[in-house]
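Archive entry. Fields below.
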Amino acid sequence: MATQIRKDYILDRWVIVASERVKRPTDFAPRIREVSRRGTCPFCPGNEKMTPPASLIYIPSNGGIKRDKDSNGERTSNWLVRCVPNLYPALTPRKPLPLTGNEFHEIRDGIGAHEVIIESPTHDEHPHLASIKQLQLVLQAYLDRLREFSIWEYASIFRNHGKEAGASLSHAHSQIIATPMVPKLIAEELSACKNLYLKNNVCPFCKIIEIEHESPRFIYENRGFMALTPWASVYPFEFWILPKKHQHTLLQMKEIKDFAEALKKCLGSLARALNDPPYSYGFHIAPFKGNHEYFHWHLEVYPKLTIQAGFENSTGMFINIIPPESAAETLRNSIE
Amino acid sequence: MATQIRKDYILDRWVIVASERVKRPTDFAPRIREVSRRGTCPFCPGNEKMTPPASLIYIPSNGGIKRDKDSNGERTSNWLVRCVPNLYPALTPRKPLPLTGNEFHEIRDGIGAHEVIIESPTHDEHPHLASIKQLQLVLQAYLDRLREFSIWEYASIFRNHGKEAGASLSHAHSQIIATPMVPKLIAEELSACKNLYLKNNVCPFCKIIEIEHESPRFIYENRGFMALTPWASVYPFEFWILPKKHQHTLLQMKEIKDFAEALKKCLGSLARALNDPPYSYGFHIAPFKGNHEYFHWHLEVYPKLTIQAGFENSTGMFINIIPPESAAETLRNSIE
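PREDICTED_STRUCTURE:
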């Protein structure tokens, strides 16, 4: 394939799909793995005192699951999933400060929230290794914390896996940052989505699902979800998981088991195909306030196999050395 | 300082300046250095056959410098600066292909150019170590190649230093990629700049230079240039170098010696203050075609000390743990 420059489905974001730079997946350097130091892991059971008190825990109770939280300076230990404030928060809930900026020094107060969702008592139980039952609890915790954070403008749920993808601790965990404004990329996506919705009278993401189901970018589907490598993938082996039903926010999701299954299958395929590479994922959801019916939430997974540097950072254009069609084929063939 | 959320001078780009996450500069991990393998370096003198023929070389001649290029399959060896096509180009000049996209699969042909500028015959002569005289040659080569590439829409000149910043070879080199379209970030900057110019009747960058000269974000100045850490720095220790005279493109620069000096001083300060960290830099210049008089070219330097991951990639918001004012103080104090 001759090198192409592709535009994202809806965003004004362009990617050079540089197949003349192409390397086969197996050409990526094998990953150097950090040894996980279980004894000092602040997220492992027994070390609960190393984190702030939990804002939410799930504990087994009468054959079911009970929601609870730490209180009175005590820490509960027999949890299955545990949410705690981040010890080094990017944003914190506090009384707003009066701030004055000017035309060239615009400023907002850095209030919000930043929590860690510890996904399992078992240190290495990452999504591709976890049971569907455990993953359902993790997703339930996402929904519970999202609901709690709906007093803010937006909340980003994301996961960094592996040191090269920014994970400072190797214990299976996700993060959630609630922001006092709608982030730029989400605002751009909302706006583009709204314009296309008004123009075509159909949600662009519903349309994308329909088109890509029959394309070489299709990876996987079950009753509720479909996975694909996007047309203008920014990262090699980037893929998205989208709900088949039109839902503007994750809070509308009822098909938790289907999503857990899609997540495990697709991340498992990535781990098998590329030797458990570092990756990040992030949810794209509608902001809490206002009418965003036209939006379609989805999860974007960004494997970290190459380094973005001077060209990307100073132009906002990207170079992807793996055509999404090859990536989809590899991922499709590694689904188990 | 309480955590703030700052907007870029002109772009709709927001950065969480999270001082509660702050680490002192010395807390950054010492860099693990690759051993440079001089014997097999394709950019070292004697190995010219390992690259495509040079499109431009500077060679000493009668006490001055002569421009030349490789021809007839031969390689000239006594060069001071050497420009060659990238062996794994992101974009290549060739006959355009007819391409058909559709509403959700927009596409352009991947034509353009991608060259490497080998900055010195000496393997490790990076800008902070090079003589002003050698740096002037490098900058002259930038200008010469830019002129050559002005048949395209835009050309990005950038430099990746260190493995973590994407440099696959450690020999001192820059790169230039000519694109068949104006990249997104440059287009956004042009548009914002034009609006502010029309509104205030003054170039916003000229205004920024005036304001920041007296601010805690000032780093350095000489006759022709000023360096500052931008108000909403995306990266810890990010800094910009701007021409004091209003010039919309690098091609207008006459003050090559002043710029060489500013570059050496500021990159030297970064290397001394933070143990020669990995970094990238990229020029922001006006596109070749059209009237962009209102734009003000500049160089942006992005040290690579932290990892951008799930949050940044899925929201387009950034977290910077070093306030630009602290970064400027550190860099100011390390200028020699």
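CURATOR_NOTE: The mean pLDDT of chain A is 92.
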